[in-house]
Design goal:
The protein is α+β, with helices and mostly antiparallel strands and 338 residues long. The chain has helices at 2-6, 12-15, 37-43, 61-71, 111-147, 155-184, 196-213, 231-247, 295-300, 307-318; strands at residues 22-27, 32-35, 76-82, 85-96, 99-109, 192-195, 217-222, 226-229, 254-261, 267-273, 321-327, 331-337. The chain is built from 10 helices and 12 strands. The structure holds adenosine-5'-diphosphate.
């Protein structure tokens, strides 16, 4: 390996590769001269491939083409899938007296990075779609008014529609900002002492007027418990859980918030409602961004589909666990244990 690394590669940077990376060195016939043991693990191969053709590591056309290109003297980079994993290949030819002597292949596992990229792309596509709907409505209504066909007496109704859609846009943008901030928040974000009981009381007070509109009773039980966390995020989590418990409730229903220590002395907050419930096959999905069990119903009551994803990310940031217990038509209980 040493000898080949010392050969002229035509690119100085390759000399500096960290040989603790996943590196494979092949000769001009694609035979493996050397490799790190981690390469075998990455490719899911059990025994050493030294002196064997490098293609035994991966039989995909992409890998074959990339190796062929390198052995023609062309540096190239390729993404390939290896079972469930995604790998980035960096192939560089090695020259000896201007003749191809072989190639060095550096393999990096980029599965997590690719996953994050995929989620980001999906999120951006969803954001654009969600923003476009109310904007299209606003634009359409404004155009009708502009054309002069709306009678003066009907203008307040049309303006009301514009106001409703614009409010929806504001809520959406606010939630999108919160999700993005949570995405960027890391474990170094400043934490403080947060009293869960006190915070729950504040949130319930804030939601009281909305609950009253639907004759829903709110109550708080439990103990004065404090944890260490990011107050604004925990407030947001409690707010979203309680807001949902009210939104997806039935008229004259009930919402009970409990703050307690469990049998393992871990603090938890539990929000229980007597609402419409969530079918068991939906219970995992509700934490996905923009996922709504009944899209039109959620929209009608001002939902964005981001509330529970904020709860989930907030829980991850605090190392908390979430348990959902729900029965259609009977209600839902969501517990976050810190
Ligand atoms: P939304 O803004 O639509 O409420 P969330 O992310 O907060 O979005 O929730 C996702 C979906 O989960 C909701 O659209 C709703 O269908 C369902 N859901 C959330 N909380 C409850 C609840 N307490 N009872 C019944 N369904 C719920």
């Amino acid at each position: 390996m040493q000898k080949l690394l010392q050969m002229k590669t035509g690119r100085d940077d390759i000399i500096n590769i960290n040989i603790y990376n996943n590196v494979i060195i092949i000769d001009k016939n694609a035979r493996v001269l050397s490799h790190n043991t981690s390469v075998l693990k990455l490719f899911g191969v059990l025994e050493s491939v030294e002196q064997k053709n490098v293609l035994v590591l991966n039989r995909t056309k992409e890998f074959e083409n990339a190796v062929a290109l390198a052995l023609e003297g062309r540096h190239n980079e390729k993404i390939i899938t290896v079972g469930e994993r995604v790998c980035n290949l960096y192939l560089n030819p090695v020259f000896d007296d201007e003749k191809i002597a072989g190639a060095i292949i550096v393999v990096t596992d980029v599965t997590e990075k690719e996953k994050r990229e995929h989620l980001r792309r999906e999120f951006s596509a969803n954001v654009s779609h969600e923003l476009k709907t109310p904007l299209t409505s606003i634009s359409g209504i404004a155009e009708i008014i502009k054309s002069g066909i709306v009678e003066t007496k009907d203008v307040p109704e049309f303006a009301g529609k514009i106001h409703k859609e614009a409010s929806r846009l504001i809520t959406l943008v606010e939630d999108i900002i919160k999700v993005s901030q949570l995405d960027e928040a890391d474990t170094t974000v400043e934490k403080e002492r947060v009293n869960l009981y006190e915070l729950s009381g504040e949130v319930l007070e804030q939601l009281e007027p909305v609950a009253k509109l639907n004759a829903i009773r709110l109550s708080l039980m439990g103990e004065d418990i404090a944890i260490v966390g990011v107050k604004s995020i925990i407030r947001e989590m409690i707010f979203n859980l309680c807001d949902n418990a009210i939104k997806y409730n039935k008229p004259e229903g009930e919402v009970i918030v409990k703050v307690k220590l469990d049998e393992n002395k871990r603090s938890y907050i539990e929000v229980k409602d007597t609402g419409i419930g969530i079918a068991s096959d939906q219970q995992d999905r509700i934490f996905e961004r923009f996922y709504r069990v009944d899209k039109s119903h959620s929209k009608e009551i001002g939902g964005t589909g981001l509330g529970l994803s904020i709860v989930k990310h907030g829980a991850i940031l605090h190392g908390a666990d979430i348990i959902v217990d729900s029965k259609l038509e009977y209600g839902t209980r969501i517990r976050v244990t810190f």
